[in-house]
Amino acid sequence: MKAVPPGSSVLRSPLQFRKRPQKIVYEEDSLRRRFYRDHPYELLRPQSLIEKEIPVREDWSTLLGAERVAEEQALAFGAKRPLSQTERVLILEQENIKKCPPKVTV
Which is a Pfam family this sequence falls into (predicted)? Predict the structure, then answer.
């Protein structure tokens, strides 16, 4: 406070802010830019900061049930998934709305 006492105004002068802060540049930044320029699809892969600590899973059977895998394969080969109860009700509702449009009275 003794070296730089506050001014008479609480607001600072705009002249104090003319200098822009220096850019912080790390050596890794240029390496990272080059890597993603050479391998652009790596940007699509989700990144984790603790990636090295996650164990590599080798047995996926506990995560994906056989039924789910079978359903995905069937859909990939053109099978049609049956409609859920909610989807059936929505279709019936849309059909009834088309039959009887709402009457608006003024």
Answer: MRP-S25
pTM of the model: 0.29
Q: For 88, what's the count of Cα atoms within 13 Å in the CB-facing half-sphere?
A: 5
Residue 92 to residue 89: CA distance in whole angstroms: 5
Who's near 42: CB < 8 A, 6+ residues apart? 35, 36
Q: How many whole angstroms separate alpha carbon 9 and alpha carbon 56?
A: 61
How confident is the prediction along the chain (106 residues), in pLDDT tens digits per residue?
A: 778 776 666 666 666 666 777 889 898 899 989 988 998 888 887 766 665 666 666 776 666 667 777 888 888 899 988 888 999 999 999 998 888 877 777 7
Q: Kindly report the backbone phi and psi dihedral angles of residue 98, in degrees, each rounded to the nearest multiple of 5, phi listed first.
A: -65, -35
